[in-house]
Amino acid sequence: MSEEGEITVLTHATTRSNSLRTTFPIGLARHFKLKEGDKLKWMLRVENNKLVIIVNPIKVTDNE
Question: Which residue blocks in 1-64 are alpha helix, DSSP H?
Answer without folding.
Answer: 26-31
